[in-house]
């Protein structure tokens, strides 16, 4: 069972898992940037949902930094939490209401966000399957020897 310490330590996933995680990070960045852009284009005025757009953008940036810092387990958790949460929110806002906010259809920006977030979830999941993306990745991947 992984410990909190093992989840926060640097890890070295195998090359295939790392490539998938890097691709997932690009998808996370696209989703986060689009949420930031929409926040500055008027969503800041939308009660509850507007600040969530800003939090999505900030969380996406922090999540990407976790991968750069080789905290792959935390990157995986962040990527899945942000993107699954955002996809569920979009589903609610387009089919009924999300905190009183609803949208009528999918414009180009909404489509970009949905595709980016779905890609992030898929790529993160594939990285988990490829091995090395979660806790204990340093054991399955390359290990770092320190004296």
From TrEMBL:
The chain crosses the membrane at residues 48-68, 73-92, 112-133. Keywords: Membrane, Transmembrane, Transmembrane helix. This is Uncharacterized protein. It comes from Paraconexibacter antarcticus. The lineage of its organism: Bacteria, Bacillati, Actinomycetota, Thermoleophilia, Solirubrobacterales.
């Amino acid at each position: 069972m992984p410990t909190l310490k093992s989840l926060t330590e640097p890890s070295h996933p195998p090359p295939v898992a790392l490539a998938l995680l890097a691709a997932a990070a690009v998808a996370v960045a696209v989703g986060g940037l689009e949420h930031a852009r929409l926040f500055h284009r008027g969503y800041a005025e939308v009660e509850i949902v507007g600040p969530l757009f800003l939090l999505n953008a900030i969380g996406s940036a922090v999540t990407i930094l976790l991968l750069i810092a080789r905290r792959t387990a935390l990157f995986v958790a962040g990527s899945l939490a942000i993107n699954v949460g955002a996809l569920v929110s979009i589903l609610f806002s387009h089919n009924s209401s999300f905190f009183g906010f609803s949208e009528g259809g999918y414009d180009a920006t909404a489509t970009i966000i949905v595709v980016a977030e779905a890609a992030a979830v898929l790529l993160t999941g594939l990285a988990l399957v490829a091995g090395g993306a979660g806790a204990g990745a340093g054991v399955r991947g390359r290990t770092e020897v320190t004296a």
